[in-house]
Amino acid sequence: MLVLVTGATGFLGSHLVERLIAAGHQVRCLVRSTERLGWLSGLDVSLYRGDCSRPDTLAPAVRGVRTVYHLAGVTWAVRRTEYFAVNAAGTHNLLQACAQQSAPRLRFVFVSSQAAAGPARGGVAVREAHRPRPISPYGASKLLAERHVAAYADRLHCVILRPSTVYGPRDTNLLPYMRLAQRGFLIEFGRGDRVVSLCHIQDIVDGIVRAAVGQVPSGSVYFLADPVPYAWREVENAVRQGLGIDARQVMVPKWCTSGAASLAQLYGMAAGKPVKGNAARLAELLEKQWICDVSRAANELDFRPRIRLDHGFNQLIRWYRQQHWI
């Protein structure tokens, strides 16, 4: 089957591409540059130069494909409008290009984020039927993109996925945390009683592939995560075990992180480049209950994560060391 993957050069996209190639699919990748391919280098894929923010570049990329896996987007931006221009408007552009094809009805798998639904409240895991309450521009832009996808559910076979925090080889988001842990410090923002949904990259990829072939209604929405959330102390213990050190927890007060995040955001705006430690990211880190219910994905997609946190973190830390990142 000929398939298209957007965001293929990234952490999640590159793992998905490898899985699709191994399954025997012809994989086409939409890339902004053919010179910076990252983890795609050397893989048996067809490259189509384009950008979801430029509608005129999308028709050749979607022509003749049976399934589109849309992962492209921005997780960090200087201004709020950039999230919506890429994540929401870019998704709408791609949907339009797919709907204009004369081929049989395309399957469109949109990889959104748990951030689109927002954190849990009162210890009740967020479900697909709950009203979304994103707390960051990134989450709000992903939610608007989901609504664009839902509006095309009668013209394309659409499935919307909301992965939790994803970890595994090639992930750079956990790298600063791991480097500090390697030096003996486990940083915790606010109080240390957080509970989070996590999932290993290979299990998330499995869920994405299942969504593409599952006999489910168009417009269906699914959370993807380990079925049992983790207390943050379990994450810290997995890090200690993987690194083989007795790192100590360092609590950073909310007032301290708020000031630093505000300064970082001002610097990013002045420099014209995104800064990861901004105020919006801090607001997400300070939430205590990033937990979601994955029973619907288990029942309808037979989604069964297999990689435990301790095994997954051991693998990630070995990979970081192989790359000489820590």
Kindly describe this structure.
The structure is a single chain. With about 325 residues, this protein is an alpha/beta fold. The protein has a domain at about 1-165 and about 200-225 and about 290-305: Rossmann fold (3-Layer(aba) Sandwich), CATH 3.40.50. Helices cover about 40% and strands about 20% of the residues. The protein has eleven helices and 14 strands. Strands 3-2-1-4-5-6-11 form a seven-stranded parallel sheet, sandwiched between helices. Helix 3 (about 80-100) links the parallel strand 4 (about 65-70) and strand 5. Helix 3 runs parallel beside helix 4, helix 7 (about 230-245) crosses helix 11 (about 310-320) and helix 8 runs antiparallel to helix 9. It is globular. The termini are far apart. Mean pLDDT is about 90; it is low at about 260-270.
Helix content range of the residues, please? 40-55%
Radius of gyration: 19 Å
Major sheet: arrangement of strands: 3-2-1-4-5-6-11
State the CATH class of the domain at 2-166 and 199-226 and 291-306: Alpha Beta
Give the averaged pLDDT, no decimals: 90
- Give the uncertain stretches in residue-range form: 258-272
Order of helices and strands: EHEEHEHEHEEHEEEHEEHEHHEHH
Q: What name is given to the CATH topology of the domain at 2-166 and 199-226 and 291-306? A: Rossmann fold
Counting helices, strands and paired strands, the structural category is alpha/beta
Q: What is the total tally of β strands?
A: 14
Q: Main sheet, how many strands, which sense, barrel?
A: 7 strands, parallel
Q: State the CATH architecture of the domain at 2-166 and 199-226 and 291-306.
A: 3-Layer(aba) Sandwich
